[in-house]
Write a structure and sequence with these properties.
188 residues; alpha/beta; three-stranded antiparallel β-sheet; 6 helices; 35% helix; globular
């Protein structure tokens, strides 16, 4: 299942975007779970409190309270792998997406063909990043890591201790499950 967040304060645009994403899922035979957030603050609070992570985030740039760019910067602190696609009515905001390594941007009004191409691009990235694991950091936040971020893993009782570029992290998971998850990346 692909988890998608739509962060959009205007109902007309959010309804249209969600209907296009659902249509894409039906056409490509992909199960997509969509969560809607009405502003950047609501999105930040959710991502701070939830262990669930998104594969794709459609983020409006200009919103009240917390802008989409601020929310995306906050998201990038814990998740370098999520595909962020900005949506905007003003072209000059689109280039700001490079500050957070956005996958792409779309200018409103959004057309289905354009969205479909962006989703194809995001789905390719999801497949490439399929071996990603969420681990609890020392401060309690969840950090997503790929095989490239992991030096090695050792067993500690029923836990796996991950030695990573971002520090050591402990997770309740068997070594055989870790090996299965990362076998295509050369882990034994």
């Amino acid at each position: 299942m692909v988890r998608v967040a739509v962060v959009e304060d205007e109902k007309t645009y959010s309804d249209e975007l969600i209907s296009y994403i659902r249509r894409y899922g039906r056409e490509k035979n992909v199960l997509i779970d969509i969560l809607l957030f009405r502003d950047g603050m609501e999105f930040k609070e959710y991502t701070d409190s939830s262990a669930e992570r998104f594969d794709i985030v459609f983020m409006d740039i200009k919103m009240p309270c917390v802008s989409g760019l601020e929310a995306a910067k906050h998201l990038r602190e814990t998740d370098p792998y999520v595909s962020i696609i900005f949506t905007t009515v003003m072209m000059q905001y689109a280039t700001r997406g490079y500050e957070v390594d956005a996958l792409d941007y779309m200018v409103k009004p959004i057309h289905y063909l354009n969205l479909s191409l962006k989703l194809d691009k995001a789905m390719t990235r999801i497949v490439r990043n399929k071996a990603i694991i969420a681990l609890p950091a020392a401060d309690g936040a969840l950090v997503r890591l790929s095989a490239a971020d992991i030096f090695y893993v050792e067993s500690r009782d029923h836990y796996a201790l991950f030695y990573t570029a971002k520090g050591n992290m402990l997770k309740l998971i068997s070594l055989s499950a870790v090996e299965e998850m990362f076998c295509e990346d050369g882990f034994l």
